[in-house]
């Protein structure tokens, strides 16, 4: 269940980035740099919050480590995919 929620979380973050990028690019392309920095900050804060919550509520230490590693890997993959899609 945790992994399905993590996939949904990163899918939503990716869709928000792609749709926001398209919106900013069509309305004011000079602000794309600002949009990217704001989205990167939002993603980092959300991912850190999700990792913290998963670590707090994980039943064992090993589960907490596995969940944190998987979420961090998924974050890196999301960053690579969204950057290759829009740059």
Word description of this protein:
- With 87 residues, this protein is mainly α.
- It contains three helices and no strands.
- It has helices spanning 2-27, 32-57, 61-86.
- The radius of gyration is 15 Å and the shape is elongated.
In short:
With 87 residues, the chain is mainly α. It contains three helices and no strands. Helix content is 90%, strand content 0%.
Please render the helix and strand layout as text.
Elements (H helix, E strand, L loop, with lengths): L1 H26 L4 H26 L3 H26 L1
Helix pairs in contact: 1-2, 1-3, 2-3
* Multimeric state: single chain
Distance between the termini: 33 Å
Which band does the percent of strand residues land in?
under 5%
Element order: H for helix, E for strand? HHH
Report the count of strand segments: 0
Largest sheet: none
- Rg computed from alpha carbons, rounded to a whole number of angstroms: 15 Å
Judged by helices, strands and strand pairing, the structural class is mainly alpha
Helical stretch count? 3
Mean pLDDT: 88
Q: How much helix, percentage-wise, in residues?
A: over 70%
Sum up the overall morphology in one term: elongated
- Which parts are unreliable, with pLDDT below 50 for 5 consecutive residues or more? none
């Amino acid at each position: 269940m945790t992994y399905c929620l993590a996939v949904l979380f990163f899918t939503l973050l990716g869709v928000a980035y792609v749709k926001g990028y398209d919106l900013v690019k069509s309305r004011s392309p000079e602000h794309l740099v600002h949009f990217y920095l704001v989205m990167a900050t939002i993603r980092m804060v959300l991912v850190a919050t999700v990792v913290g919550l998963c670590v707090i509520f994980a039943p064992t230490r090993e589960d907490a480590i596995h969940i944190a590693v998987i979420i961090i890997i998924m974050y890196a993959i999301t960053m690579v995919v969204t950057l290759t899609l829009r740059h």
